[in-house]
Amino acid sequence: MDEKERENRGLALDRRTFLRSGAAVGALAAGAGAARAEGEPDPLITEVQYWANGWGDGVDASPYGLPIEFESDVIRRNVPWLTADVISSINFTPIHALDGTITPTGCAFERHHSGAIELKKEDYRLMINGLVDQPLVFTYEDLERFPRVNRTFFLECAANSGMEWAGAQLNGVQFTQGMIHNMQYSGIPLRTLLEEAGLSNIGDIKDKWVYVEGADASSNGRSIPLEKALDDCLVAIKANGEALRKEHGYPVRLCVPGWEGNMWVKWLRRIEVTDQPVQSREETSKYTDTLADGTSRKWTWVMDAKSVVTSPSPQMPITHGKGPLVITGLAWSGRGAITQVDVSLDGGKSWKVARLAEPGVAMAMSRFYLEIDWQGEEMFLQSRAHDDTGYVQPTKTQLRAIRGENSVYHNNAIQTWWIKSNGEAENVEVS
Amino acid sequence: MSKFRDLVIAAGGLAVLALPAHAEKLGLGRAALPEEIAAWTVEVFPDGTNLPEGSGSVADGEELFSEKCAICHGEFAEGVDNWPKLAGGDGTLADKDPLKTVGSYWPYLSTVWDYAHRSMPFGNAGTLTVDETYAIVAYIIYSNDLVDDDFVLSKENFLSVEMPNAGGFIVDDRPETEYPEFSKPACMENCKETVEITKRATVLDVTPDVE
């Protein structure tokens, strides 16, 4: 939908932008620091502050804690004009404000097709049927008795950055790259459950599938090659150490490492081994990629290598003036581990190798840093991921040359932030 | 290089430690009963597998669609506001903004039947009877000019309906068309002469306000 169409529908949005709100935040921060007159002692140090002579909260003030009120802007946000209704919609992780690699569960993006349901553990059933020796039904308690593994995976919606295909559109990394999260899952390898049901009569696994579906009204059924199911898929019962949140599929979801988020069926209720794909709504009418000539790619499951600078970025302007500046961001690949991230300050004319905070882990997020001495010069800030297959994140121009501009999904192009001399940042496309 | 090899070996050792020992079956869970399998195994495959006996006419479908679907999808399946358009868009797939509907895009009729029966109406999923589903699907394909107004869709004639875009899909070809191109050594210096801004997000200005 283009802007004119949106305006015609009365959906035109407030014209205030992140730039202005970002600048306002910056001014506040500078104001607090500036309370100290030049050369004078800092009253925050020389005067006793209320937090230093009174009491803070007792234990149990918040039996399950939320972030402190000063961080109340670090929240999931949606784009109202994007979908018809919040019941079947998506929101975005505030990746601009996070660090490290694990996404705090409470702000990890949500995508529902019929809303986030409430399904109790005691009402939970998982069926395995189809071409297995013995169709089985498991309770949640049964699942807890299988040997478990811990794995950290990113989950990226296939539509992440989808609104940016035709041009720079949303001015904030939360909206341009925020349909992603990265969690540590505890769960049972799907292979274990399939083998419990028995695959002795399956024949060649290469032409078999599993059809997975959720317990919600959408069911969000997807067909996955049996080979992938037996390789690394996980039936997760915990994320980041705690029970899955309702919005992430409590009590049980599927992890399909490296593959598009839509396949990670939430409220997982059934796994059927089949000899053909179902060709469900979610794998035909949606999550397929239309090329310039009108033909469409299907089964584009893998999320290719991608990275983005999370700060500075439009929601994270530089407010501290000249001098040391930490550039940071995230990188991930659905085909393996991140081996290198390059950062360009000049829109891709030249690149520096950034520092990976930790060695890359397959199908999990990596954090990168590049520390520079910023002297107020304008920058066209970009990042470029490499994975262990040798793949290098492409530019949008490179992707468009192959796919055209009609795609929605699987946009893993290099992102550009125009950093201005006052520290503000804007989402732009460059030649 | 030896450092790299050591890392690989170390990682391999870790992986072995982290994986549960391969065990015999644990005997957990119970046998699924035929009634239970039947209750949940309702997905319909492109070849008609799992399609139940039944039928429904375009005329009946028109009434049902008006009653149960039109509030979102429009009386003629043309869509309301941002809700999905189910009809139209013929020949638009190569256009700048393709209109993807059942008629212009969906490759299999089974998908329409399956989704309507299982997940629609929105907010009241799973309430359509088998015959109602046939009728509503008949009306949707009628709205796309794929059948005449006296058409009756049934299990028997289901596979005879031709979907215009059935041949419009190819299997993911990125391994051939993209991976070689995007796996060349990366340029680090003097990669291009000039850099000009070609698009700006603040000109479009569709970003939600954070306040």
What does this structure look like?
- The complex is a heterodimer of chains A (431) and B (211).
- Chain A contains ten helices and 24 strands.
- By secondary structure, chain A is of the alpha+beta class.
- Among the domains of chain A are: 121-295, Oxidoreductase, molybdopterin-binding domain (Sulfite Oxidase, Chain A, domain 2, Alpha-Beta Complex), CATH 3.90.420; 306-428, Sandwich (Immunoglobulin-like).
- The longest helix of chain A is centred in the N-terminal third of the chain and has 16 residues, at 18-33.
- Chain A is globular.
- Chain B is mainly alpha-helical.
- Chain B has a domain at 51-160: Cytochrome c-like domain (Cytochrome Bc1 Complex, Chain D, domain 2, Orthogonal Bundle), CATH 1.10.760.10.
- Chain B is 34% helix and 7% strand.
- Chain B has helices at residues 2-18, 34-40, 58-68, 70-73, 109-119, 130-143, 174-177, 201-204; strands spanning 30-31, 55-57, 152-154, 169-171, 197-200.
- In chain B, helix 3 (58-68) packs across helix 6 (130-143).
- The chains are: A alpha+beta (431), B mainly alpha (211).
- At the A-B interface, helix 2, strand 1, strand 4, strand 5 and helix 7 of A face strand 1, helix 2, helix 5, strand 4 and strand 5 of B.
- Strand 5 of chain A pairs antiparallel with strand 1 (30-31) of chain B, so a sheet runs across the interface.
Layout: helices, strands, pairs:
The complex is a heterodimer of chains A (431) and B (211).
Chain A: H1 3-8, H2 18-33, H3 43-46, H4 50-53, E1 77-78, E2 89-92, E3 111-112, E4 125-130, E5 136-139, H5 140-144, E6 149-156, H6 173-177, E7 180-189, H7 190-197, E8 209-214, E9 222-225, H8 226-231, E10 234-239, E11 242-243, E12 253-255, E13 268-274, H9 281-284, E14 289-290, E15 296-298, E16 306-311, E17 323-332, E18 338-344, E19 352-353, E20 355-356, E21 366-374, E22 379-387, H10 396-403, E23 416-419, E24 425-430
Parallel strand pairs in A: 4-13
Antiparallel strand pairs in A: 1-2, 2-3, 4-5, 6-7, 7-10, 8-9, 8-13, 10-11, 10-12, 14-15, 16-17, 17-21, 18-19, 18-22, 20-21, 22-23, 23-24
Chain B: H1 2-18, E1 30-31, H2 34-40, E2 55-57, H3 58-68, H4 70-73, H5 109-119, H6 130-143, E3 152-154, E4 169-171, H7 174-177, E5 197-200, H8 201-204
Antiparallel strand pairs in B: 2-3
